[in-house]
Amino acid sequence: MTDRALAVVRAGALTTVQDLGRPGHAHLGVPRSGALDGPAAALVNRLVGNPPEAAVLETTLNGCAVRPRSAVTVAVGGAPCPISVDGRPVAWGAPVLVHAGSLLSVGTALSGVRTYLAVSGGVAVEPVLGSRSTDLLSGLGPPPLSDGVVLPLGRPSAPPVRLDVAAQPGPPAELVLRVTLGPRDDWFTASAVRALTTHTYRVSSASNRIGLRTEGPALERARPGELPSEGMVLGAIQVPPDGRPVVFLADHPTTGGYPVIAVVRATDLPAAAQAAPGTPVRFVTVRRR
């Protein structure tokens, strides 16, 4: 067995392998998947000398613990959290050398939701449709990690970046999402459209990689019945029968029958990945491009 591997000692609440995802397969019913906080994943890859497409680990809330079988350089970013090697604290947001057999522990997020762990060489599980990402909706890619799983690692392609700590944006105290109305805003009353863009919602604890669910004013429909299934895009705000908006994230379904009242700008979605339950959410209308 190769020594370029990572043994999972503690998988945490939900830890998955993620890379840039599988865009371009929606016509096959395959979501794009990939890291929810793309900039955070890209930064930790850069810190350890990996290319942007290298696969990382995405943890949820309470981190994970791993043991490399050979010396590796790691970097942790995204949601701030304590990090230790064999019980000794090490830097967050910076390259750290971890020797073979040492235990790297990524702790519980101090704020935010998702933390990213990059390892020099990248996680080298078998790709599916060109991506190593775990897709919770379709089941493509490796399953969420469990204790005892051993992950193969690639060979390093470049040395780690020389710096102390990389600046990263903090998780949002208030999530502001810029939206373009449509394509089905005419399925809602004028007061519902007004409520979406003037009231403050909150992130629901039922949110996941498929969608950010919200709590707040229910949006009233102007039309009865349901739409035939139609294509769904990243950032679509779908409104199910309970009237509470759901923002589709990376593992979203590629089709759906509930009306989409608006679409969130893609550049605002990384912040949504770090919005903890209870975070205030405001939807701000911008003009169509």
3D architecture notes:
The chain is mainly beta and 289 residues long. The strands form 4 sheets. Strands 12-19-16-17-14-13-20 form a 7-stranded mixed beta barrel. The radius of gyration is 20 Å and the shape is elongated. The model has no long low-confidence stretch (mean pLDDT 95).
Please mark out the parts with pLDDT under 50 across 5 or more consecutive residues, or reply none: none
Termini gap: 53 Å
The fraction of residues assigned to DSSP E strands is 25-35%
Got a strand count?
A: 20
If helices are DSSP runs of H or I spanning 4 or more residues, what is the number of helices?
Answer: 3
Rounded to an integer in angstroms, the radius of gyration calculated over CA atoms is 20 Å
Helix proportion range:
under 10%
The neighbouring-strand order within the major sheet is: 12-19-16-17-14-13-20
Structural class by SSE content: mainly beta
Main sheet specs: 7 strands, mixed, barrel
The global form is: elongated
**Global mean pLDDT:** 95
Tell me the series of helices and strands, N- to C-terminal. EEHEEEEEEEEEEHEEEEEEEHE
Q: Could you give a short description of this structure?
A:
This protein is 8% helix and 28% strand. By secondary structure, the protein is mainly beta. A hairpin with a 7-residue loop joins strand 16 (236-238) and strand 17.
Features:
289 residues; mainly beta; 7-stranded mixed β-barrel; 6-stranded antiparallel beta sheet; 20 strands
Q: What topology does this entry show?
A:
Elements: E1 5-10, E2 16-18, H1 38-47, E3 56-60, E4 64-68, E5 72-78, E6 83-85, E7 88-89, E8 96-98, E9 104-106, E10 114-119, E11 150-152, E12 175-181, H2 190-198, E13 201-203, E14 211-215, E15 230-231, E16 236-238, E17 246-248, E18 255-256, E19 260-264, H3 269-273, E20 280-285
Parallel strand pairs: 12-20
Antiparallel strand pairs: 1-4, 1-11, 2-3, 3-10, 4-9, 5-8, 5-10, 6-7, 6-9, 12-19, 13-14, 13-20, 14-17, 15-18, 16-17, 16-19
